[in-house]
Amino acid sequence: MPVSGLRILRSACLGALAAALPDFLEPADSSHHRRFFHSVIALCGLGWMASRVVRMPPSEFRSDLLALLAGYGSHLAADALTPRSLPLC
Ligand SMILES: [Zn+2]
Fold first, then answer.
1. Is residue 89 part of a domain?
2. Average pLDDT taken over every residue of the chain
3. Most buried in the list 23, 30, 38, 75, measured by CB within 10 Å?
């Protein structure tokens, strides 16, 4: 299945939006803002969802879901590397 530039741009935009979602749900207004949507449990849930999505037949919907999961997961991975890291739940 050939991938068009527009398709790549769409995935990049979806990933960027999803990467902003954790701080939209739990605004970074203090150093203790990370709760459930920034948690290890949420990251595990993302991993579980990704393991299900990769088994789906190739489609634009599957690509969109993977872009969303990767974007959200990249935010949590970046936060996990900070000194405060992620709460368990
Ligand atoms: Zn964050």
1. no
2. 93
3. 38
